Structures are given as structure tokens and as C-alpha cells.
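queue> pop job 88
queue> type: inverse folding (structure -> sequence)
queue> payload:
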């Protein structure tokens, strides 16, 4: 299965990275007193909670189908991505409140050099883990790992903005730049959270598979259409790492059941090879029967 123990191991990596970066960023905040670094540290706490949720979701999604969940448990991944989306928005609100207070009463930044070093180390860790998770998410087709990777990348850009702000404050003495950078960070985090929630909602509403994956199916069906076989009522949906594809196969009514069955098995196998992990279901119909064409509206 795509949600294999190897996928959960990436969530463990993310948990370890979050704990490390929390320590580094709070250390940097204590040294400098920068509200920008405090906002960055808050986001790392969100990263930790999200990584723990991702581990749970991947573990649950890996469970095989049972009597109550005959299509499997892969949609559990959407609970993790939804939770992460909401946590991102909560973190953004906390950052905005802290930045607003500091905006009214700007304060100088202390020991900026050492604080920046700690922040940059944390940024490098997040960047490396995000790159690893992105590669794994493409290989395993996991929305949970992809969401976690994009969240970490947001953290990278957040940290970069904070470091830039602290550098500007140190060189110009304009203390107000620190809370302004923090507010910009909050806005960026909100944008990430909203995008993640929209993607989660799409998955829960059984969105069709992406166009690039549909294009893998088309050449296979075209090959059989050239032989006089017809298809319609194509429906697809995504559920976590799983893809579900169903359609009707129209053949001459004089065919034997065995011949039609063998053809459907052949087509299903070809699509499963082109789209690994896909659950393909076909419905055989006689092309001459008008009733067979009543489902055309489903195409």
C-alpha cells in the first residue's frame, strides 16, 4: 500500500525536526526579544502538532479494508490536513496579536547575531526535511506528507522574512520593522492555511483524479475503441493515496460472458499498471441494447 510504514517514518522525521526547531527558535527569541522570532517559534509548535497528527493519519490510513470500511481508510489523511489547516490559521492569529502589541510599543533587539545563527540553523533543518517530504509525497501520493512539506516550506520562508527583518532592525535601528515583518508572516501563514483547507475539502467531496492522471487512462481506452469497443459513464475519485476509476464497457451482445469478462479484466489490469494503486471497476453492457445508453449522462 502507498501509506506504508515508510510513509509513517517520514512523519517521525517531521516530528523530530519540529522538536529541534522549537528549541532553536525559542532560544533565539529569548536571546533577542524579537516578536518576529517568537512568531516563528509559534509556527514550529504548529508544525509539531501537525506532524503528530500526520503520523496518526498515516497509521490509520494504512489499515486494510474491513466490514465497516470496505473502501479502506485512506480518507483519514484528510483529517490530518484539515487539522493542520486550522492550526495554521490559529498560529497566524496568535502571531498577529503579538505583533500588534509590539507595533504599539516597539522594543530594541538584543544579541541579534547569535539569535540569527540559531534561526538560520532551524531554517536549514526545516528546508531539508521539507525537500525530503515533498519527494516522498510524490512517490507515495500522500496528501498528508505533501501538506506537511508545504507547511515546512512556509516556515522556511517565514524564517527568512524574520531573519531579514531582524537584520534590517539591527542595521537601521527602526524597531517597528520587527512587528511589521511578523504581521507579514501572519498573512503568509493564513494564505497557506486557506489553500490547505480548500484542498482538504476537495478531497472529502470526492474530487476527480487530476487531469495528468486521466491522460494516462485515455491511450488505453483509445486502443480498445479502435477495435470497436465503446466506453462511457467514466467516473473517478481520489481518497487519500487511493484512486478509484469506474466506467461502462459496451461490447457486441453476441459475445459470451467469458469473452466480455476477459476483456474487462484485461482493461482493468492495463489501467492499474498505468496508474499504480488504482481501484478499477468496469460494468459490461451489450452495445445494441438501448438501455445500455441510458447512462450516457454519467459520462
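queue> result:
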Amino acid at each position: 500500500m502507498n501509506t506504508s510504514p515508510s510513509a509513517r517514518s517520514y512523519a517521525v522525521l517531521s516530528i523530530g525536526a519540529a522538536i529541534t526547531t522549537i528549541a532553536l527558535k525559542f532560544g533565539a527569541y529569548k536571546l533577542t526579544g524579537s516578536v518576529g522570532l517568537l512568531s516563528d517559534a509559534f509556527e514550529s509548535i504548529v508544525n509539531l502538532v501537525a506532524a503528530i497528527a500526520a503520523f496518526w493519519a498515516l497509521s490509520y490510513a494504512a489499515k486494510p479494508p474491513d466490514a465497516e470500511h470496505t473502501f479502506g481508510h485512506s480518507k483519514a489523511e484528510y483529517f490530518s490536513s484539515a487539522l493542520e489547516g486550522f492550526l495554521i490559521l490559529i498560529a497566524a492569529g496568535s502571531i498577529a496579536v503579538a505583533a500588534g502589541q509590539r507595533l504599539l510599543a516597539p522594543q530594541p533587539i538584543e544579541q541579534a547575531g547569535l539569535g540569527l545563527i540559531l534561526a538560520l540553523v532551524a531554517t536549514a533543518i526545516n528546508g531539508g526535511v521539507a525537500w525530503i517530504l515533498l519527494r516522498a509525497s510524490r512517490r507515495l501520493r500522500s496528501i498528508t506528507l505533501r501538506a506537511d512539506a508545504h507547511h515546512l516550506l512556509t516556515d522556511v520562508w517565514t524564517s527568512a522574512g524574520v531573519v531579514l527583518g531582524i537584520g534590517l532592525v539591527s542595521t537601521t535601528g527602526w524597531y517597528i520593522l520587527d512587528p511589521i515583518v511578523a504581521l507579514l508572516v501572519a498573512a503568509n501563514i493564513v494564505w497557506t492555511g486557506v489553500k490547505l483547507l480548500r484542498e482538504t475539502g476537495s478531497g472529502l467531496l470526492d474530487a476527480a483524479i487530476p487531469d495528468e492522471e486521466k491522460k494516462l487512462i485515455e491511450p488505453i481506452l483509445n486502443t480498445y475503441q479502435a477495435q470497436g469497443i465503446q466506453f462511457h459513464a467514466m467516473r473517478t475519485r481520489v481518497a487519500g493515496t487511493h484512486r478509484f476509476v469506474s466506467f461502462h464497457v459496451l461490447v457486441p451482445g453476441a459475445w459470451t460472458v467469458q469473452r466480455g469478462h476477459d476483456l474487462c479484466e484485461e482493461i482493468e489490469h492495463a489501467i492499474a499498471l498505468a496508474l499504480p494503486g488504482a481501484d478499477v471497476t468496469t460494468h459490461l453492457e451489450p452495445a445494441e441494447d438501448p438501455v445500455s445508453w441510458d447512462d450516457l449522462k454519467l459520462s
